[in-house]
Amino acid sequence: MRRLVSLFAALCTAVGLALLLPAAPAGAAPACVTAWNSSSVYTGGMTASYNGHNWYAKWWTQNERPGGSDVWRDEGVCGTDGGGTTPPPTTGFVVSEAQFNQMFPNRNPFYTYAGLTAALKSYPAFATTGGETVKRQEAAAFLANVHHETGGLVHVVEQNTANYPHYCDARQPYGCPAGQAAYYGRGPIQLSWNFNYKAAGDALGIDLLNNPWRVEREPAVAMQTGLWYWNTQNGPGTMTAHNAMVNGAGFGETIRAINGALECNGGNPAQVQSRVTKYQQFTQILGVPAGANLYC
Length: 296
What we know:
Blueprint: H1 2-20, E1 41-42, E2 47-50, E3 53-57, E4 61-62, E5 72-77, H2 97-103, H3 113-119, H4 132-150, H5 194-204, H6 214-217, H7 219-232, H8 241-246, H9 251-259, H10 269-286
Antiparallel strand pairs: 1-4, 2-3, 3-5
Helix pairs in contact: 3-7, 4-10, 5-7
Keywords: Disulfide bond, Hydrolase, Plant defense, Signal
Signal peptide: 1-28
Domain Chitin-binding type-3: 33-75
């Protein structure tokens, strides 16, 4: 009898202790890996913790905040380390602001990332068509050509002022209402000629024929004109630069759409090489291959 009482007392003690102790969590979060560092370079497969989550890098990245770029895959809640602040919202553009700054380290303050991303709304198919590789290749191709045209987004307007009076085609029925010398090259692809200002303005819903100066005063308008040409104009080529990239014709055909025989087919191989080299650099930053048909 005494033994049964002892066993009962022991059981009650054990139950009491169990009631006092917290239950072990089911499926507890894994420990946080090393905290994300904005100055570190991460290659595909590396991990970092940020804002209470573990993150997996899908490709090369530097200074792209986890949660603010699709380079990072959320691996779920982790322990309490790996702090930081709430990540900023992503723009949805395949080029992050950090990558944009890396591509254009000496750019004119006029050319802003915000201006570029605002302009994207005018051409939603740009850098969103096809698979992830094609999207990044198109963005790299556009920005590489822009880099070449503007000396690294340094020049907002055409530097040779002697050319300014030449860009008025008076044969057009609408003439040159802003003045004969008002339609010089401006913006990331150096929009020029009164008829191009008219066409771009009509497409964008902006009166650029009467007020071409908006292209050198408003960052978003400047970028809109570059995207207008890229997405809608064959130029001296046989297809738009957008179609060249999404249909697999290759980077070389984007050069042809912009400058045709002035550079292609031996016209100026050094200029072509300059564009190709920059495109290869930008695709590397974005973690994708450059693809075939780089030259024209």
